[in-house]
Automatic annotation (TrEMBL):
One of its GO terms (cellular component) is collagen trimer. InterPro entries: ECM_Assembly_Org, VWF_A, vWFA_dom_sf. The lineage of its organism: Eukaryota, Metazoa, Spiralia, Lophotrochozoa, Mollusca. CDD domains: vWFA_subfamily_ECM. It comes from the Eukaryota. Pfam families: VWA. Keywords: Collagen. The keyword Amino-acid biosynthesis does not apply. Gene3D superfamilies: von Willebrand factor, type A domain. This is Collagen alpha-1(XII) chain.
Amino acid sequence: MPCVLVGVVAIYKDIVLAIDTSDSVDASDLKDAIDFIYNVTKWITIGPQDIQVAVVTYASDVTEHFDLDDYLTNNTLLSAMEALKSKLTPGGGTYTFDALTYVKTTSFLPMRGSRNNSKKAVLVMTDGQSTNYPLTVKTANELRTELGAEVFAIGVGQDSKKNVEILGIASDPDSYYVYYVDSFDYLCSVVPSLVPKLDPGAFAQGVSSCPTVAPVEQDEVATSSSNSSVIIATVVLVAVVLLSATITTAVIIERSTRVPSFTSMESQISSIVNQYGNAPLGESPANFDASQLDHVPELGPREINLDIVSPSQFQPRLDPIPIRNLELL
C-alpha cells in the first residue's frame, strides 16, 4: 500500500504584539498580560518560514523588546517572554497612536526582521482610551490599508466596552477582531479563540488555571439599570397622562352639569311673563313668583332684558344689559 504524505502549508506571517503599560495598569496586571501572550505563542508555529513574533510595550514612550527575527523557535521566544515579567513596570500615559506609528514605520521594516510578502498582524492590548483618539484610529487604518495588516484589539477592564476607540483600532468585522475582558486575569479565556486566527493550523487548549466564571460586566449592569429606569419612567408618564385625562374629563362633566340649559331658562321666563299678563292693572306692578329663576346665565353680547312696567305696557326687547341686572320694581 503506497504511503500518503500529508503536507502542512507554512503560515508565513509576521506578528507584532503591542501591550499597554500605562499607569492605570497594575504590576500584577502586566504579569497576567505576559502570561497571556506566552500562552498564545506556545501554540503557534514559530520559525523563519513560519510565524515570527515581536513584542512592543507602550505608555508615554514605546519600547520594542525584541525584533521579529530575534527568536526563531518556540522555546527561545517563550523564554524571552517569561523574562519580560521582571522588566516591565507600569507608568505614563496611554499613547496608543505612538505605538501604532512605531509598529507601522519600524517593526515591519526588513532590518527589524520583517519578510517580503509575509502576512502581517498586530495585536493591541489596552485598558483605556488613548490621549489622542483621532490619531490612534487614523494610524490603525493606515496599518490596515497601507500594509494590509490584520489588527486585533483587546479591551481590558469593566468599562472596556464603552471604549469605542477599540472598534476604530481593530479590523472588521468587530465580532472577529475585537475582544473584551473584565480584567487582566481573564485574558486567558481569549487564548483558544485567538490562536487559530493567528495560526490557522494551530489548536489551543484552554488554560488550566484560567477562571471559568467571569463577573458580570459593568456595562451590562449599567444597561440593565438604565432599561429598568426607562421602564419605570414610562409607566409613571402613562399614569400621569391617564390621571390628567381623567381629571380633565371630570371637570368638563362637572361644569356641564352646573350650566343650566337655555331652553329651561326660557320656560322659566315665560312663566313669569304669563304671571304679568294675568295680573290686574294698576299703578304698581303685580306681585309674581320669581323663585323659579334660580340660575341666570350670561347669554352673550345681546341678552333678553325685561323692562318691568304695567302689564298693559309690557314689551320685551333686546338690550346689551345682562339679564342678571334685572330689577323688580
